[in-house]
Design goal:
The protein is of the alpha/beta class. It is built from 10 helices and 11 strands. The strands form 3 sheets. A 6-stranded parallel sheet has the order 5-6-4-1-7-8, sandwiched between helices. The termini are far apart. About 35% of the residues are buried.
Length: about 260
């Protein structure tokens, strides 16, 4: 895994995929944990003489601009965390205006792109979108561990067109996960959540043989509850994965713990 410690960024515009999917209320960031977690990577790039273009998603927009999912409200929190002016690029990431603005960045400057999920091709890992995003920078850093498993344009697609490296947050999480996979200390209990079983199925299947207990929460828990015959009302669930949930519950009896 290529890391920042051997990544030359002097004079380069560096695209950084971060996970700024933060909670907002009345246009104000309520928890800046994900922003502060990215600071070591951003500071390292700035110290190396780079300019930075930040990419992130926020929420689940249905395609096209939606004001409630705009990243613009993150600017004050970013400026406070970095003690630095942030340039917000309000045009859509795929637009010519965004490219023109990105090309004006000077070393030491930071810009934040609008929500990448406003582009329809983002979640389809559209090659044209990936290639266009790559034109915004000279190098790419992935530091969004929570999104690193997704085959999206801003996550894996753009990496096909630019020299790439893992950010410090991603590197830290990968090392921690490696330790848990290879040399865990018993008892080994994993807590896993998220909206959909489909998003985490491979992780669940890989971990279940290794763990003593797996506590499943979030929206995905309702699929497992329904698979057991429980009542979930109108709660989010995936009928297509009920049979898989039943299979896992039967294959690993007593390992999977669900909310009551």
């Amino acid at each position: 895994m290529n890391t920042l410690d051997n990544f030359d960024v002097a004079g380069k515009r560096v695209l950084v995929r971060v996970d700024y999917n933060v909670p907002l209320k009345d246009g104000v960031v309520q928890d800046d944990t994900r922003i502060t977690a990215s600071l070591p990577t951003l500071n390292k790039l700035l110290e190396g003489g780079a300019s930075i273009i930040l990419m992130s998603h926020l929420g689940r927009p249905k395609g096209g601009y939606e004001a409630k999912f705009s990243l613009e409200p993150l600017v004050p929190a970013l400026e406070k965390a970095l003690n630095k002016k942030i340039k917000f690029i309000s045009s859509l990431p795929l637009s010519a205006e965004t490219l023109a603005t990105a090309q004006t960045l000077q070393p030491g400057e930071i810009a934040l792109l609008e929500n990448v999920r406003f582009e329809e091709g983002e979640e389809k890992n559209d090659k044209t979108l990936s290639e266009t995003l790559a034109k915004l920078g000279d190098a790419f850093v992935l530091d969004a561990f929570g999104s690193a498993h997704r085959a999206h344009s801003s996550v894996s697609g753009v990496a096909e067109f630019l020299p790439s490296a893992a950010g410090y947050l991603l590197e830290k999480e990968v090392k921690a996960l490696g330790q848990l996979l290879e040399h865990p200390n018993p008892p080994y209990v994993v807590i896993i959540g998220g909206a959909k079983v489909s998003d985490k199925l491979l992780v669940i299947e890989n971990l279940l043989p290794r763990v003593d207990k797996m506590l499943i929460g979030g929206g995905m828990a309702y699929t497992f509850v329904k698979a057991q015959g429980g009542t979930i009302g109108k709660s989010i669930h995936e009928d297509d994965f009920l049979e898989k949930a039943r299979e896992l519950l039967g294959k690993y009896p007593g390992k999977i713990v669900l909310p009551s």
